[in-house]
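_Backbone structure tokens_
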Amino acid sequence: MSSRSNAHSIRCFFLTRFISLFVAPKVHDLSPNSVRLCLPRSTIGRMELRQLTYFVAVAEELHFARAAARLHIAGPSLSQQIGNLERELGIQLLVRDRRHVELTPAGSQFLIDAREVLSAATRAIERVHSDAGKSPLRLGYVSWLPPEARAMPDLRIRIDEWVLPSHTQATRVAEGSLDLAIAWIEEADLERLNLTAHLLRHEKLEAVVPRAHSTTQNEIVPASEIAVLVDVDEASWSSWNRFAISFAGASRASAENINDGGVTGPAFFEHVARLRRPVLESPKRHVAPMPPTLTRRPIQGPVPLWTWSLLHRADDTRTEVARAARTLVRHASILGWRQRPLEPHWPPTTEIST
């Protein structure tokens, strides 16, 4: 099948299924004729939207086990659903074997469209179920979510199910598909996206070290002796890559390029074993347990600090948004999350302090 045919099939798939979700009884009234020509005879059910959700998770993780853990489903079931989706499309979306998953060109295009359709579906459902014209505040996050964010007094909060990278969540806030997000961001991106950030937490990052390495004899690891992983997949790891490269330049750590999404998960532990040296661990929480041949150590000289901030649009003047920001910042201050360590750290100053 040609790339042009693939693209047409994908567009028809999304167009007909999205129409079937919300206006299926009136499909015959639609124009132009090209829309009617690619309509299927059956309408979409809940399973098909779930298939899109499953595909997006696999495409972002590029690892079936991690995607299954994220979705809280069994791995074989996830693989079966992806296979069903590919058969329905008549297009291969993923190239996979026992240890490797990657997107085909058609799969890369499908990922963009799948995100758009799911986001549109979410917005439509929220409008239908709005309470007296007011929808819950939609809060997105990356890997850290304080329990208090789920139950703020006098506020309706809906935790968004899409756990995405910081740069993606920031863009979603700017575009309006999220009201709030807890993410890492740089000052330049705040200005570019017209966002406001409220600092919530400084998270000290640690190194994962082979137990046989000489640094395990000490309680800390010098920053200059660690490696940082930089993944070629900017769509998934742009925020982490910028942080890692800047930290390496400031601390004389070495940057190691990878191409397998091994910034986290089992592949990360494999990189530590392969490099036989301390490696900076990202703030993304691991689902897989750490092998017994590895251990963690704090880093000094300087301490790497990952900053979590609450983001919202700078021009969003709703009282509930301001109240959510005040509530979370006050809670973070009480618990000491916003305090910097006394020892030298990086970055040395934080432009985000509100």
Q: What stands out?
A: Residues 136-354 form a domain with the D-Maltodextrin-Binding Protein; domain 2 fold (CATH 3.40.190.290). The chain has eleven helices and 14 strands.
